[in-house]
Amino acid sequence: MTKPLFITFEGPEGAGKTSVLEILISELKPLLGDELITTREPGGNPISEAIRAILQPAEDNGMDERTEALLYTAARRQHLVEIILPALKSGKVVISDRYIDSSLAYQGGGRGLGVDNIWQINQFATEGLMPDLTIYFDVPPELGLARVKANRQGKIDRLDKENLSFHQTVRQTYLQLQHDFSDRIKIIDAAQSLDQVVADTRELLLKTLKTRKG
């Protein structure tokens, strides 16, 4: 059995990570076939998708910040049990659009709940499982939010509508995480053209995939 790999894509609003992932999946699928599992957070299974609907309404639903953090963590646990762990046990490559770093950046940093606090509840939920590689797509919040407004009309959620200082704090938290965990988290300049971002990401992914047969 080939070595399993767990890869996550992270980034602030408007970084373009989902678009990049969609392009690269079309390239990786012919190479990996059913060994490639792609998923997203929150979501990936019925329970987590139901939680996603609560967490990402179009309008503010008055949710308490700690409730939000706990719901993201609960969705992550179910996602892990149903999707990620079985795939890794089968030696597959799992690529997830968001994972624990999103909670650290958005709830720990942006919401001001504390990165250490969010880390602790997620350690309980994930039993310490961390990605082999996290690709962080970095973009200034002003540019990211402008992209959101230009390209996601009708799909803007509560987080998109937060003020600029919230998004600045989210980005700074991501950058601190990348500094602290530079062996795991690799940074991509997402302010570049889409073609260049895809090329840089492809290079990282292919280098990591080579380690499966190490």
From TrEMBL:
Residue ranges annotated for the Thymidylate kinase-like domain, each copy included: 9-199
GO cellular component: cytosol
EC number of the protein: 2.7.4.9
SUPFAM superfamilies according to UniProt: P-loop containing nucleoside triphosphate hydrolases
CDD domains registered for this protein in UniProt: TMPK
Keyword check for Transferase: yes
Binding site for ATP: G11, P12, E13, G14, A15, G16, K17, T18
UniProt-recorded Gene Ontology molecular function terms: ATP binding; dTMP kinase activity
A biological process term (GO) from this entry: dTTP biosynthetic process
Matching PROSITE patterns: THYMIDYLATE_KINASE
First-tier enzyme category under EC: transferase
Signal peptide feature range: none
Swiss-Prot/TrEMBL keywords: ATP-binding, Kinase, Nucleotide biosynthesis, Nucleotide-binding, Transferase
Gene3D superfamilies: P-loop containing nucleotide triphosphate hydrolases
UniProt keyword Kinase, yes or no: yes
Catalytic activity as recorded in UniProt: dTMP + ATP = dTDP + ADP
Family: Belongs to the thymidylate kinase family.
Role description: Phosphorylation of dTMP to form dTDP in both de novo and salvage pathways of dTTP synthesis.
Protein's recorded name: Thymidylate kinase
Taxonomic source organism: Leuconostoc gasicomitatum
Gene designation: tmk
